[in-house]
Write a structure and sequence with these properties.
single chain, 146 residues, mainly alpha
């Protein structure tokens, strides 16, 4: 893995995330989701999930980090949920429903990760993980294993 090039990509995407155009910010959110394991990407991702200018950015960024289906993506969303206003929270919930309403295995795995995050030392992550777990528990996925 080329750490320098990955860092440069994150720097470029962070800059794009500061654009006045919501489409640029949405693209930055989608791109940064692929680098969420890098510390340099976490704050910009959280800012884009809570984008003050356009909830389209909120939804696509939340969806992109959730698509990772890992603890890092769920922690970004949990952190955002912990401080989101009702409007942003609604769009984050829409992204959660879109990502976890199909396969029960995906929803169940996410719920298990949330249970682990309830013990996170970061209070914001733990609080948001509780909210995320409650949202996931209300989802009745379409497809279940045979």
């Amino acid at each position: 893995m080329d750490r320098d090039r990955r860092y440069e990509a994150v720097v470029a995407l962070r800059e794009l995330g500061r654009s006045h155009d919501y489409r640029d910010r949405a693209d930055a959110g989608r791109g940064l989701a692929g680098f969420a394991e890098m510390q340099e990407a976490l704050r910009p991702l959280l800012e884009l999930v809570l984008d003050p200018g356009d909830t389209f950015v909120t939804r696509v960024t939340a969806e992109a980090v959730l698509r990772r289906k890992d603890r890092i993506g769920l922690a970004v969303v949990a952190s955002a949920l912990a401080v989101a206003d009702s409007n942003h929270s609604d769009w984050i919930q829409t992204a959660i429903l879109d990502m976890f309403s199909i396969f029960s295995e995906d929803r169940d795995n996410a719920m298990q990760l949330c249970e682990e995050m309830l013990r996170d030392t970061d209070d914001r992550v733990a609080f948001g993980a509780r909210q995320l777990h409650e949202i996931l528990a209300q989802i009745d996925p379409v497809l279940r294993p045979v």
